[in-house]
Amino acid sequence: MKRTERPGDPWSGHISLPGGRHDRSDPDLLTTAIRETREELGIDLRGAQLLGNLPTLSPLSAGPNGMEVTPYVFATREPVVPQLSAAEAAAAFWLPIETALSGALDDVYVYPGTDRQFPSWRFDGHVIWGLTFRILGELVALTK
To answer: Which domains, ranges and CATH numbers included, belong to the chain?
Structure first.
């Protein structure tokens, strides 16, 4: 999804996967992932098949005492149509993993105002880089 642009949000307008902070009312991180996906994209994962979680990662921009992200992977039998939450998601799209695996989307993202370069995918006018790229890379590695 493309995140809604908001002042003070360091990932404002970036491409991301649904997710967010663990709420005190969430008994575990799986519940957080299900809740955040429903809130941001209107997708109810309660009936989906949980395939498992990927390794916990930290965004490089979060610094040494930053956050940790634990991605969960689900499969559905029926097509899923995102219903955007304007407060969270400006757009949503499905990335064709086969095309990404082929190398056809490979690119380099240069972080604005620096010479720092990051591997990325460019798809349909979107740039997938950073933590989202790393998470999807972990998922893709499992399919090989």
So the answer is: 2-143 (3.90.79.10)
Q: Give the span between the Cα atoms of 140 and 134, in whole angstroms.
A: 10
Global confidence as pTM: 0.90
DSSP letter (8 states) at residue 14:
-
pLDDT digits (tens, 9 = 90+) for 26-62: 999 999 999 999 999 999 998 899 999 999 998 876 6
**7-15: long-range contacts (C-beta < 8 A, 24 or more apart)?**
10/61, 13/90, 14/130, 14/132, 15/126, 15/127, 15/128, 15/129, 15/132
Does residue 65 carry a pLDDT above 80? no
Question: Please, which residues have CB within 8 angstroms of residue 92's CB and are 6 or more apart in sequence?
Answer: 1, 2, 41, 82, 84
